[in-house]
UniProtKB/TrEMBL annotation:
Gene Ontology biological process terms, A to Z: tyrosine biosynthetic process
Record's catalysed reaction(s): prephenate + NAD(+) = 3-(4-hydroxyphenyl)pyruvate + CO2 + NADH
Record domain Prephenate/arogenate dehydrogenase: where: 3-292
Taxon lineage: Bacteria, Bacillati, Bacillota, Bacilli, Bacillales
Organism: Weizmannia acidilactici
Keyword NAD attributed: yes
Stretches assigned to the ACT domain: 297-367
Gene Ontology molecular-function annotations: NAD+ binding; prephenate dehydrogenase (NAD+) activity; prephenate dehydrogenase (NADP+) activity
Family assignment from sequence similarity: Belongs to the prephenate/arogenate dehydrogenase family.
Residues in coiled coil: 241-268
EC number in record: 1.3.1.12
Protein name: Prephenate dehydrogenase
Length: 367
């Protein structure tokens, strides 16, 4: 598709969408703006955008597609600014915010100006921020929720999907209300819980110096999302605060039941609590298309011998098995460390497991 695309907010999400658009539509011009000059320079140097502008007005003028990829409270503010600007008649304005109701409440004013706004939320990401973490494949197979607000914006949804085709995401239309209720449950509230679990450990840190080292494995897995951007999550929490407050009440009730079962030593109640959760969790789809992408991790106990890590990565490279992340977790006294290797798919992880078991002397396992 030809035309001018203007991306505001050149971080992880704005950068990844810009890359996906450039890949699919090389004939389009992608211009960026970010509040941070370094981010714009980096985006240009990484060829995430063709160029950048010094203010929003300059980029918005003449744009065929405007994408707001800033923290949600900033997005609300920028929508108000865009409402004051002269935009092309046929422009599509969209956003990538993790909340939709409060943004759409502002954006609905575009209707009076005859401008189409389609709320958007690519349901994949990372705890990493910034353009250096951007990649065109970030949204592959993920859901991309779209919230058009009227008949005209519904009609333009197809055009927006064509612009975003390079994301290889699965587009689904939802209302802003159902959007915010659903993502509160599966994404926003888990972030509150993850951060609060980390606070529990942090508060006990001084008393138990060993705690940090023991807090590996499962604890690291379920608190991974607590390493996300504080500004992004404070914005989301305010943006979706009513749903979060309601969930906090339900969660508290839930925990009260656990507390009663513990106080009364009700083994069967506790068993049921875990069994029902396991049964539901085991039936969740395992593809990487949920809000929180699946990670296919493999663990290798590695001794303190130079070259072990490269021995392992070379073996994987020889067989063409690509890895998405690698990290040494120092968790146990009896081994130098545990190598955690992440793969894009279950198949890659299983092939790597077989290969490393057959061709290295190390203990290789899936947790
Ligand atoms: N990180 C994730 O996993 C996901 C994030 N989102 C949403 O996408 C949006 C962007 O998130 P990320 O890219 O992860 O954040 P990020 O922190 O990587 O990027 C945000 C960018 O916005 C810029 N910015 C802040 N205020 C600005 C302003 N007034 N004008 C212009 N630029 C400004 C920042 O400098 C930064 O470069 C947020 O609304 C977030 O809720 C949606 C899906 C996944
Ligand atoms: O990486 C994770 O686990 C995430 O939580 C990613 C994420 C963050 C925000 C969204 O609105 C959607 C997905």
């Amino acid at each position: 598709m030809q035309g001018k695309v203007f991306v505001i907010g050149l971080g992880l999400i704005g950068g990844s969408i810009a890359l996906a658009i450039k890949k699919e539509h090389p004939e389009a011009t992608v211009i960026g703006f970010d509040a941070r000059l370094e981010e714009m320079k980096m985006a240009k140097a990484m060829m995430v955008v063709d160029g950048y502008v010094e203010n929003i007005k300059g980029g918005a003028a003449g744009a065929d597609l405007i994408i707001l990829a800033t923290p949600v409270l900033v997005t609300e503010k920028l929508v108000r600014q865009l409402l004051q600007m002269e935009l092309k008649e046929n422009v599509i304005v969209t956003d990538t915010g993790s909340t939709k109701e409060s943004i759409m409440a502002q954006a609905v004013q575009f209707k009076e100006k005859g401008i189409v706004f389609i709320g958007g939320h690519p349901m994949a990401g990372s705890h990493k921020s910034g353009v250096t973490a951007a990649k065109p494949t970030l949204f592959e197979n993920a859901f991309y929720l779209l919230a058009p607000y009227d008949k005209r914006s519904k009609m333009k949804t197809e055009e927006l999907e064509r612009w975003l085709k390079g994301t290889r995401a699965n587009f689904i239309t939802v209302s802003p209300e159902e959007h915010d209720e659903m993502v509160a449950i599966i994404s926003h509230f888990p972030h509150v819980v993850a951060a609060s679990l980390v606070h529990l450990v942090k508060d006990a840190d001084a008393e138990y110096p060993l705690l940090k080292r023991l807090a590996a494995g499962g604890f690291r897995d379920i608190t991974r999302i607590a390493s996300s951007s504080p500004q992004m999550w404070a914005d989301i929490s305010i943006g979706n605060r009513e749903n979060l407050i309601a969930l906090l009440d339900r969660w508290t009730e839930n925990l009260q039941k656990v507390k009663r079962a513990l106080e009364e030593s009700k083994y069967d109640d506790l068993f049921r609590f875990y069994a029902e959760a396991k049964q539901y969790r085991d039936r969740l789809p395992i593809s990487g298309s949920g809000a929180i992408p699946s990670f296919y991790d493999l663990f290798v106990d590695i001794p303190d011998i130079p070259g072990v890590v490269s021995e392992i990565t070379n073996k994987l490279a020889e067989k063409g098995i690509s890895i998405t992340n690698i990290r040494i977790l120092e968790t146990r006294e009896d081994v130098y460390g545990v190598l955690r290797i992440s793969f894009r798919s279950e198949k890659d992880r299983d092939n790597a497991l077989k290969l490393l078991k057959e061709e290295t002397p190390h203990e290789v396992y899936i947790q």
